[in-house]
Amino acid sequence: MIARMATNPLPQFPPGFLWGVSTSAHQIEGAAEERDPSVWDAFTAEPGRIKDGSTAEVACDHYHRYPEDVALLAGLGVDAYRFSVSWPRVNSPGGLDFYDRLVDELCAAGVRPVPTLFHWDLPLELDWLSRDTAARFADHAAVVAERLGDRVMKWITLNEPAEHTLLGHALGAHAPGRRLLFDALPVAHHQLLAHGLAVRALRAAGAGDIGIANSHGPTWAASRRAEDVEAADFYDVLLNRLFSDPLLLGRYPEGIGELLPGDVESDLKVIAEPMDWYGVNYYQPTKVGAPEGTEIEFSGLTLPADLPFSVRELEGYPVTDFGWPVVPEALTELLVGLRERYGDRLPPVVITENGCSYEGIDDQERIAFLDGHVRALHRALEQGVDVRGYFVWSLMDNFEWAEGYARRFGLVHVDYDTLERTPKASYAWLRDALRAQARR
Ligand code: BGC
Q1: What span, in angstroms and rounded, lies between the C-alpha atoms of 84 and 158?
Q2: Cα–Cα distance between 173 and 159 in angstroms, integer?
Q3: 6-10, 153-157, 258-262: which has the highest mean pLDDT?
Q4: Tens of pLDDT along 401-422?
């Protein structure tokens, strides 16, 4: 048994605060031959796309081992489990049966199901550059709601449309591997439209408690010089406001709407369909300055030299094994900032992802990371932000997209040769912290 780092008790969260963990279908399920292909299968098959040359064909084999994984969730004592429903699997014979079984197993274990309807594994025949994909997504949402709606606690339409646009279509580091730079903007718009149409389709199918999981991170200007501040503002628009403004204010940041195809004004009415809650995935803040005219290596990406900003190294903070700075206080800043920007238009917030990649089973760094971030979250609550839940990314180590299996984000270690699951020190820490919350 691993020794647990002694941390002070966490502050008490309000009754009913939702504690959970997150995963996504493509990253854990495996059983690729039992579903239709997705853009990620095609991308992974291209030589050189995945750093360690691995594939997600087996991943954690969660598809076959889900009862063991649900038992791990129950042992952890979380209230809820955020997973994603693979759209290509739903399209395959028997695919929905799997999610039906999973949801039943979760309910039997007292863990509330929180499905995400799209976490990047688009059916291979579809394309977000096509507007029609938005309507197809609403159909997908209705099909899933019809089948699982009687047992689902909360619904999430999309996961991180910002990253899917940026990494998948602008920079080509994720599936489908396009490098369209600013011509990727329609991909953002079509996903947002898909979200709005899905909110309506879910409600029409009798489903409620609907949100989205949007990535957010504070952008810090490299200096107070006007050119740095302007560049940071531009970056902030691309990564944050391009998505949250249309959803919460019903308008695009200045200058964006003109670049988009179609009747943007009427689409915005659909996009801004009110949500019941707003999901935030937070990992790190970013320091941004004026362009430096050189290519930049950032988080495993090569950013082109001709962008109107440059991403700078954030010095003075510990970093995870992925090289991401650990800045818990930026979570407080982010949440307070969202409340200031959106006011009453911001529905109750749920942190739908927060976590870190570290090697090892005795993962004291992960404990320190989670401890720091949960406290930072509590400070946001104290400052009046209505936060209703916190989900750790991730239940277990998994296929970390272009990084393959090299990054381990799990509370549970997975041995990829034997598929054996071993709870890490952080699993025990979270379990005990949740028990302490429940006791007080
Ligand atoms: C994604 C996850 C991913 C995690 C860590 C988020 O952007 O939603 O799928 O594994 O970050 O990179």
Answers
A1: 9
A2: 17
A3: 153-157
A4: 999 999 999 999 999 999 999 9
What is the Å distance from ligand 1's center to 218 Cα? 17
- 46 in catalytic set: no
Atom of ligand 1 nearest to the CA of 403: 12
State which of 166, 191, 286, 401 you would mutate to test the pocket of ligand 1, scoring each by most atoms of that ligand within 8 A of its C-beta: 401
Secondary structure of 360-414 in the HEC alphabet? CCCCHHHHHHHHHHHHHHHHHHHCCCCEEEEEEECCECCCCHHHCCCCCCCCEEE
Return the SS3 of 333.
Answer: helix
Are residues 109 and 171 in contact, defined by beta-carbon separation less than 8 angstroms? no
Ordered by where they begin, the domains of the chain are 18-439 (3.20.20.80)
3 pLDDT more than 60? no
Cα angle for residues 277, 253, 119 (degrees, 5° grid): 45
Q: Say which residue the tokens 């034997």 belong to.
A: 418
Q: Burial of 47 by CB count in 10 Å (0-12 exposed, 13-18 middle, 19+ buried)?
A: exposed
Residue type, 232: A
Angle at 348 between CA 344 and CA 353, to 5 degrees: 130
Residue nearest to atom 10 of ligand 1 (CA): 400
Q: Give residue 375 CA to ligand 1 midpoint distance, Å.
A: 22
Atom of ligand 1 nearest to the CA of 394: 10
